[in-house]
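batch_manifest entry 22 of 60
target: Histidine kinase
source organism: Arthrobacter agilis
requested by: lab member K.T.
priority: normal
notes from requester: please return tokens only, no post-processing; we will run our own comparison against the previous entry in this batch. if the run fails, retry once and flag.
--- input ---
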Amino acid sequence: MKDEHRQAAAAELQDLMLTNETVDQFLEDLAGLSSRILGRSVEVQCGVTYRHQDLATTVASSSEEARTLDEIQYGFGDGPCLHAISTGRTVIVDDARTDGRWPDYFAAVADHRYFAMMGVPLVLDGQGGAALNFYAAEPGTFTSTTQALAEGFALQAAKALQMVLRVSRQADTSSGLRAAMESRTTIDIAIGIIMGQNRCTQAEAYAVLTRASNAQNLKIREIAHRIVGGVSAEPARTHFSD
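--- output ---
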């Protein structure tokens, strides 16, 4: 990451830290900033994945499209961003149509026509795993130069996020991330309900959620909440251990 880019990114991250009072809003603005930094010459979407234990969720995104691409990946339990978190290494997909690493996931998102992907890990010092997930329609968008830029930014972003979390924890124990994880728990329970009712696979159950979301113009977590509410009077809970 060139010095001028590093200084500009640092200044923008500092502005985000100073102007956002909640973790939620900081993360949303971080996703937007990440998208702009990598998308100077081509449109790039960005999602921010947070994984606590074995549960992953998109805590922020630059668009609903990025969030959907992330959520479909979680349904398969593996993919570029999840692999980046697991290995601590950046993952680049030049063209999802010819990449053979995650064929089921790539087939499931083919209609969205985002063929280039990149997962960049965020190091959070034992606070769970996280990654920036980038998507572009043009194959070959993410090069070694783009990777270096993204990794340099991710290093700064991780430090900024840790500081925001530290301040937030003193006030409210990272409520934004907890709320997002609660939402993911509801989605997973809804998938289990659909699998039981329809005798289908996890991927097929997630496809049912996605179709319902598109048909009713509601977010996937809202559809999941309705499904879970239909079989239980108690809301889904995520149990955290410090």
